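Annual report, structural modelling task.

Input specification for the NAI complex:
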Amino acid sequence: MGELKRIAFFDTRPYDRTYFDAFNNGRYEIDYIESKLSSKTAALAKGADAVCIFVNDNACKDSIDALCGLGIKVIALRCAGYSNVDFKAARHRISVLRVPAYSPYAVAEHAIALLQTVNRKTHRAYNRTRDYNFNISGLEGQDLHGKTAGVIGTGKIGRIFIDICRGFGMKVIAYDLYPAKDSGIDYVDLDTLFRESDIISLHCPLTKETEHIVNAAAFDKMKKNAIIINTSRGALIDTIDLLDALTLKKISGAGLDVYEEEASFFFQDYSDKGIPDDILALLLAKPNVVMTSHQAFFTKEALENIATITLQNLDDYFAGKELINEVRYTKTEDRIMEGLPRKKS
Ligand code: NAI
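The model returned the following structure:
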């Protein structure tokens, strides 16, 4: 048997270790590193054959240059989104693999949890009853039944979210750059979606086109009772505009699992230090904002799938097989392409 391939595993959390150790079965030597990948920390991957990264690792050009300098030829993302990778820098130098779906149910169900927390104010009720305060004044919500859900992005997660909303008896309208044919989804333009929805949930990727897709102009169109839910990527919403909209009561509340500047804070404990980010502090101070720190994916089923698929992607890479979960930039079409079967060169 040859030497085991080594994986430099960045931004390790205890649960990563548990699930990757359980599914690795000794086939890779995994070097668990606590730091996030950046141009400064890339050197920690010295001697590795692959790096494994998550949502807030920074695979920018400088990081990729440094990894290539170490002779590393593959990055295995243990997540679906890839807005943290510079694909132009990676082109023809380092393969980028991802886990396209690990549990769309986990994310869609968490979006609903955020929605109903903001709507029915259970976060405030929890604090009150623990303090023996059984007063319910100020905690009124709205029925979801009969209301309109506006869904931006009708891929795997968006469609499950739609099914759940329909279960509540909601009318669903949606916007997608690539509407799904014969899906029975009522597609509308963005303007109509912003104007007619009582709740708006974001399920599209972060791209040049979707950055700040929800901004001051969008908030101006929304209903006063609207609740916005974001479990996709923070920069889909202009956070300063969101703060204004909440302060001026242009909308009723927000449920956020992601935040534009989350990379500096999420997945870490700042309870003793406080946070040097006034925007985040202001958001968290609002009683009608509920924030979780990028945990929508965080179920047992998703963690099992993440470990299994990430390791399978690497098996396929090292065996020279088709890389069905590769993401790459094509110069001819000037766009990023996902999951096209292609032999490793
Ligand atoms: P998907 O690829 O199945 O669906 C994305 C949908 O967005 C597609 O229908 C696509 O046509 C649409 N879309 C692309 N560009 C668009 C645009 N400019 N405007 C409107 N729609 C557009 O992706 P999936 O699996 O449903 O995931 C959605 C997003 O959820 C991911 O991009 C990721 O950012 C986020 N996510 C968050 C997690 C969390 O833990 N909070 C976990 C997993 C994913």
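The chain has eleven helices and 13 strands.
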